[in-house]
Structure to design on (105 residues):
């Protein structure tokens, strides 16, 4: 269950980051509401994962998921450009997440 919590917290982090962009500086009501709810929920669910996972592993995976998800969705939804070097760096973060997950069985 700890990994489900952590994965869910990561998805919620991506959600609040993307909806923050849609909120346009908290000037749009519904995206702003979703941003606040998702950010609180993300931290709350992360705290559940931290009951059973080491802080360093869980926090790194949580933030890494946020980085990867927002980079990919930023490119897809907002047409933000990613250079080959940026893509390689995001791929390295993904590799790090996979490595941490496999080593924390």
């Amino acid at each position: 269950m700890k990994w489900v919590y952590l994965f869910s917290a990561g998805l919620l982090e991506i959600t609040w980051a993307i909806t923050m962009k849609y909120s346009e500086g908290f000037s749009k009501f519904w995206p702003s509401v979703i941003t606040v709810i998702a950010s609180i929920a993300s931290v709350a669910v992360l705290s559940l994962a931290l009951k059973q996972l080491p802080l360093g592993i869980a926090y790194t995976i949580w933030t890494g998921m946020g980085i990867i998800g927002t980079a990919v969705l930023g490119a897809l939804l907002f047409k933000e450009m990613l250079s080959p070097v940026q893509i390689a760096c995001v791929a390295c973060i993904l590799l790090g997440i996979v490595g941490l997950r496999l080593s924390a069985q």
Q: What stands out?
A: Residues 14 and 69 are 6 Å apart (CA to CA).
